[in-house]
Amino acid sequence: MNRTAKKLLPTGQPHERQHPLEDGSVKITTFVPLQFKKRGIKKVVVGPVGVEDPVVVSMSAAAISPSQDPTLLKALARGYYWQHLLDTGTVGDAAEIAEREGLHRVTVSDALRFALLAPGIVQAALDGSLPRTMALETLQRRTIPLDWEVQRGMIERLG
């Protein structure tokens, strides 16, 4: 199988063109620079800077906004809940939580790290305003710094 490196073409500015037709009408074409980026195992459409929703799909109201990541929200909730159990003394350590939940200790420890995220980042995850390429897998693979300002910078670089 021949594998070649894919090249990302630079995106331009959004613009419209008008093409006159033979019958006197005008055909309008619109160019919107979009990129496809990986978010975990799926790909998402990322528009140019300043465009919040580059692709609008009109459907009935969904329970969770398309820009929210339910997997990430579940991991954040587990992390905060398990941290609460540790803080109140209900459990002694992450190994005890893992035993109670039937999970591996590393899974629990990874989720507990999310309780150290800056409140603004957690709020952005709840609002669905995190960069669309931010996924649970991205946070799990990175070291989360304790300084909230550094965390915000990390999120901006990843987006």
The average pLDDT score comes to 80
Question: What portion of residues is helical?
Answer: 25-40%
The low-confidence runs, each spanning 5 or more residues with pLDDT under 50, are 4-10
Amino- and carboxy-terminal Cα gap: 33 Å
**Whole-number radius of gyration?**
22 Å
Shape: elongated
Give the topology string: H per helix, E per strand. Answer: EEEEHHHHHH
Beta strand %: 5-15%
Main sheet specs: 2 strands, antiparallel
Report the total helices: 6
**Structural class label:** alpha+beta
Architecture blueprint of SSEs:
Blueprint: E1 15-20, E2 26-31, E3 35-39, E4 42-46, H1 70-88, H2 94-101, H3 105-113, H4 119-127, H5 136-141, H6 148-158
Antiparallel strand pairs: 1-2, 3-4
Helix pairs in contact: 1-3, 2-3
Could you explain the architecture of this structure?
By secondary structure, the protein is of the alpha+beta class. The chain has a domain at 62-158. Helix content is 39%, strand content 14%. The chain contains 6 helices and 4 strands. The chain has helices at 70-88, 94-101, 105-113, 119-127, 136-141, 148-158; strands at 15-20, 26-31, 35-39, 42-46. It has a two-stranded antiparallel ribbon. Residues 4-10 have low confidence and may be disordered.
Summed up, what is this model?
This protein is of the alpha+beta class. The protein has helices at residues 70-88, 94-101, 105-113, 119-127, 136-141, 148-158; strands at residues 15-20, 26-31, 35-39, 42-46.
